[in-house]
Amino acid sequence: MPLPRPVSRPVSHRQAHQPPLLRLGLVCGLLGPALWAAAIALAGELRPGFDHVGQYISELGERGSTTELFMRFGGFVGSGVLIAGYAAAFQATVARVTARPWLTLLVAALIAADGIGRIGAGIFPCEPGCAAPEVISQRLHGLSATIAFLSLAAAALLSAVLFRRDTKLRPLSIYSFASGCTGLIFLALMSASEATHIHTGLHERLASGVLTLWVFVTASRLRKLGRT
User: Fold this and answer.
1) S-S: 140 plus which of 114, 124, 156, 170, CB 3.0-4.6 Å?
2) Is the pTM of this model over 0.85?
3) For residue 38, what is the enclosing H or E element?
4) Which residue has the higher pLDDT, 170 or 151?
């Protein structure tokens, strides 16, 4: 007499596609950008007379300032850790729905590089006014920030290719391409204005805003992907 088969319970898509650690990683992709924006806004409010249009974001965490520790470790390091955590969740989630494992891994690595760059920019503060390139800490801060910006722009551009062939992720393809291009344009404008400092801070914030928003939007879409 054949033994009765055990009754299996149906597993929801959310449970199947998004284990707890994966869901936590995707939430990091939402919290990282939110923390970054909040830290910039709050640190600016705590510095009377600070000019967001002309001054660098890094000047909120410059050595000796009243907002140094808050911006360095709350803004740069805090958002960097969260975005690095999101990179792992990005790789695990996208790898399940695409047939491009190496490209998925590369994009995830670039997102992680952005997070690591932010952490480095927080560990190594810039000097007052970010105007002392001969100081090693300033050099490491600038290098870390450059890595963070360029890595995230490259991640957005490569994601345009990565997302294009998947029907569920395809809406993100054009958005990713536009975000990467726009971010690079604002970075170029920032670099071109460094001699005069006219709108340098504005261009930097627009570049950072566009690229960091891309992290938030992709994290939000990947969270919904596991619920459908």
Assistant:
1) 124
2) yes
3) helix 20-45
4) 151
